[in-house]
Structures are given as structure tokens and as C-alpha cells.
Amino acid sequence: MYNNLINVVILAAGKGTRMCSDLPKVLHTLAGKPVIKYVVDIAKHINRNNIYIVYGFKGELLKSSFNDPSINWILQEEQLGTGHAIAQVLPYLNDNEDLLVLYGDIPLISKETIKRLCNIKPKNSIGLLTVVSDDPNGYGRIIRKNGIITEIIEHKDISSHQFTIREINTGIMIANVGKLKHWLRNINNNNAQKEYYLTDVIKIAYQDNCFIQSINPIDTDEIKGINNRLQLANLEKIYQNKQAEKLMLSGVTLLDPNRFNLRGTLICGIDVVIDIDVIFEENVVLGNRVKIGPGCIIKNSFIGDDCNIYPYSVINNSNLSIQCDVGPFSHFRNNVNLDKNACIGNFVEIKNVSLGSASKAKHLSYLGNSEIGSNVNIGAGTITCNYDGKNKLNTVIGNNVFIGACSQLIAPISIADNVTIAAGTTVLRDVKNANLVLNSKQQIHKKNWKRPSEK
Ligand code: UD1
Ligand code: MG
């Protein structure tokens, strides 16, 4: 059985002029992730130890966006064409190995398609991924004689009778390293773009009695590249629609699948309902019967069964138990744990807090660095004063505590179980042996006072 080592090269040296950007093209994001990272993920399915990225424009920026010592970085100082790019990698590879060529700007290629391509045994052939396209403009055209591939001609080099050819080169191919070294020595840059085209090896290989075998991707969207921001936006739409479709077919209700955005992974229980314009980032898990209102942004969080997240709430890095109510307009800044039946209402900002079961902060509060027990009521406008200008300080609130509206809890502070804090109290020290705390302020009710008149 032929079972050669497959190296994977990802071409990413091009500047991507048409993006009109300071950022290398392949670092622009699709669903929140740099496009090249999709390609690297696919490469890892093939061989995680033999991945080569050919880089050039803003290379250091590109390299530093990966924290992955397994990637081999190959500098192509001048971008003289795809053939020249591949030639930079070949000296590092053995003649009896194979080379799979992927493009850093074609992110949606599937591992199934690549696996089928890799099943072609390139010892005596080249495996080429081609597509019959309704719009072949801009792509290299596949030339066949009696059905056999003999050549690829780049769009800028085709003659008028070849304009009607609809089979295009996706750029993705697999070939034997030794043969590639030999063929690439024979290409030149006598063409419209004055570049060394990798595609020119096809004709040379054919003349060398090599069989060029083509396969087609399962889905033509897989080979869509990104050359400008319009194409990037279109690909984002395609990608989001596919994710939405998958979720709906697995039982999730999306009130408008065209206004759904997943930038990471989303796992849902049964009968989840997601309203319009919700954004999910990183890894989110929604339990059974969770309802997410419109305009919410949920990042890296777990939301338990029967929770309701009302409109325009933002939840980051948090963990909600079952039957919690959140929002509208709540902001979970980071690291919030809600126990069963807890409730965080409108205009509450909350960070580094654990809130016990059935505890509530329903209106206009800031809660930070706090451990709050169960059955606690946090009145409207209550603030944990957790910052002395230099340090973050903790607040501990026991079970069954009632905090009256507009109170300030000056941290570090601890309030025992069952305590009541009267409305408008500034709590300055720990409450241990009392069940009511209030500020003694004299209040005057004047009878004959008048508002000042205009002078
Ligand atoms: C290439 C193919 C074309 C195919 C199309 C599919 C060639 C000559 N043409 O054309 O047949 O239909 O892709 O999208 O291969 N790159 C480098 N170094 C270079 C030049 C390019 O790393 O010197 C990288 C780019 O960053 C990009 C990829 O190679 O990731 C393709 O280059 P690009 O200039 O986009 O080639 P196309 O003209 O699209
Ligand atoms: Mg291109």
C-alpha cells in the first residue's frame, strides 16, 4: 500500500492588496477567527507535525498571532508567484514524501474533501481539486484533451476561445515532493503577471507522463477565497447560514436565521429559542428550554435549563444554574456564578460575583468581587464599593439578607445572615451582631419653605 508522509503547505505570503488593509489578508476574521486558522485546523487533520506556512507581508504579525511551535514558518521574501512560494518549502522535504498545497485565504475547505484528495496516490499522479463554476472569472482554467487534464491556464493568460471553459483550478492540490522539485525547475515567468505559477507544473507533469487526477469538493462554497472585504462579508454570510441551518435541524428555534451570529461553538439542549441579532462568542452551552432575547451577546458561558435571558444583555465567562432570569440590559462583565432561580435585572453590572439560589438584584446596581448567599434581595441602586483606588476588595453577604435601595457597601465588608440594611445606608464595617443597620440622619420637614424665585 502506498502510504507516504503528507506534508502540508499553506500559502499565505501575499499582501492581499485588494483588502486595502494594514493587516495581512489571512488575519482578517471569519466568524471571529482569523481565516488562516481555519486552514491550519484542516491541515492538522492531515498531519499536525508537518505544517509549513509560507509567509511574507507583515510576517512577524502573522507569526505572533499563532502560539503554536509545531508550525514551520517559511519566509518568502519577495512574492514571485505560487510556484516560487512552493519552491521555498521543498528544500526542507524529502523526495519520497508528498506535499498537500492549501491556501491561507480559502478557509471553508472541508476535511472530508481534503481527505478524499489525499486518497489520490501522488506517486504517479497529481491530485487536483477542481470545480465547475458558473462564474469562472479570475480563476485558472482546467484544459482537458479527451477528458484528460493537460494544462492549467491562468485567467489573465487565456485566449478568447478558452473563456467558455467553466472548470476552474481551486489551487488545492497534492503531489510527490521529488517530482515537484523536478517540475518546478522547469517553470518560468513568461506570462501576463510575470510570476512563477505553480499551475505551470501541470503541463510539465502531463508531458512527463504523469496522470493528473481531479476531484470536486462536496460543496462549491468550500473553495471560495477571500480577496476583498465584499468576498469576506459574503463568506461570513455563507458560514453563518450553514451554522444556523445545522442548529435548526438539531431542534433549535432561530427566530430569524439570517440574523444569527456564532463566532465559536454553541451547544444547545432541547427547545432552545434564540431571538434575532444574538451574538455567541467562543464556547457557549445553553441548557434545555433556554430563551435568549434579541440583541444579547453571550461569550464563553454556560446557561442552565429554563433560564430566560431578556433583550440586550451581555454575558461573559459566566455560569448560570437552572431557572435564572437575566436582563433586559444586564451586563455580566466576567466570572459570575448564579445559583438556581437567581435573578439579575436591568442595568445591573456584575463582575466576579457568586449569587446564591433565589437571590435577586433587579435594578440599577453594581456588584463586584462579592460572594452573596441565597434568598438575598439587593435593592435598586445598591453598589458594592470594591475599589480603593489601588486594590479590589471583597464583599461577603450571608443568606436571607435584605439590602435596601441605594445602599453602598464599603469593601472589604461582611454582612451576616438575616441582616436588614435600611435604604440609603452606607455600610462602613462588618455587620455581625445586629439585624438592622441604618444611618441616623436627622431629617427635617419644613412647613413654610419656598422655592427660590427668579431674579
Ligand atoms: C491562484 C491560482 C489559480 C486558481 C486560484 C484559486 C496560480 C498561479 N494560480 O490564483 O489557478 O484558480 O489561485 O484561488 O497558482 N501566494 C504566496 N506567494 C506568492 C504568491 C501567492 O504565498 O508569491 C499565496 C497567496 O497569499 C494566496 C495564494 O498563494 O494565499 C494564491 O495566490 P493568489 O495571488 O491569490 O493567486 P490567484 O491569482 O488567486
Ligand atoms: Mg486568490
TrEMBL record:
Protein name: Bifunctional protein GlmU
Purpose: Catalyzes the last two sequential reactions in the de novo biosynthetic pathway for UDP-N-acetylglucosamine (UDP-GlcNAc). The C-terminal domain catalyzes the transfer of acetyl group from acetyl coenzyme A to glucosamine-1-phosphate (GlcN-1-P) to produce N-acetylglucosamine-1-phosphate (GlcNAc-1-P), which is converted into UDP-GlcNAc by the transfer of uridine 5-monophosphate (from uridine 5-triphosphate), a reaction catalyzed by the N-terminal domain.
Protein family membership: In the C-terminal section; belongs to the transferase hexapeptide repeat family. In the N-terminal section; belongs to the N-acetylglucosamine-1-phosphate uridyltransferase family.
Gene3D superfamilies reported in the protein's UniProt record: Hexapeptide repeat proteins, Spore Coat Polysaccharide Biosynthesis Protein SpsA, Chain A
Domain MobA-like NTP transferase: 8-119
Source species of the chain: Candidatus Pantoea edessiphila
Pfam families named among the record's database cross-references: Hexapep (PF00132), NTP_transf_3 (PF12804)
Lineage: Bacteria, Pseudomonadati, Pseudomonadota, Gammaproteobacteria, Enterobacterales
GO biological process: cell morphogenesis; cell wall organization; lipid A biosynthetic process; peptidoglycan biosynthetic process; regulation of cell shape; UDP-N-acetylglucosamine biosynthetic process
Catalytic site positions: 363
